[in-house]
Amino acid sequence: MLKDFKKFILRGNVVDLAVAVVIGAAFGAIVTSLVKDLVTPLIAAIGGQPDFSKLTFTLNGSHFLYGDFINAIISFLIIASVVFFFVVHPLNKLMAHLKPSEDVEKPAERECPYCLSAIPSAANRCKFCTASVKPTAKSRK
User: CA 83, CA 19: separation in Å to the nearest integer?
Assistant: First the structure.
């Protein structure tokens, strides 16, 4: 049983997931710090009030902290925009730049006159029904 547990723990997916969680937590701390220390004060300089946590109302003796909810929404939107504009968007551009071009020519195909399967144009025998067919393109020999 211990061997199975060791095999499970050392599988690539589990280790990759553990590394991703640790890196994700560290990255989350960086983004939270960026929002709290730089972006929120910038909003306060422009808008005047960076913290809405003092906004409350009372209804039948219950105290509602709707300001905290507003803070959470604003923080979420700021964090999501920071992650999108500084991580997702640049990575998508980088991946699109590194992706191989789709200019590679695909071999021309035609239908087999007997079974109607797609076969290469230069083929002289159908790979599906094995019927002899005349090639319509020059072979690459």
Answer: 19
Q: How far apart are CA 120 and CA 122, in angstroms?
A: 5
What are 93's two structure tokens?
A: 């551009």
Structure-model confidence comparison of residues 74 and 113, the more confident one: 113
How many whole angstroms separate alpha carbon 40 and alpha carbon 24?
22
| Same domain flag for 129 and 93 | no
- β-bridge partners, 119: 110
Q: Specify whether 26 is located in the same domain as 84.
A: yes
Q: Sorting pLDDT into bands at 50, 70 and 90, what band is 139?
A: low
* pTM greater than the 0.85 cutoff: no
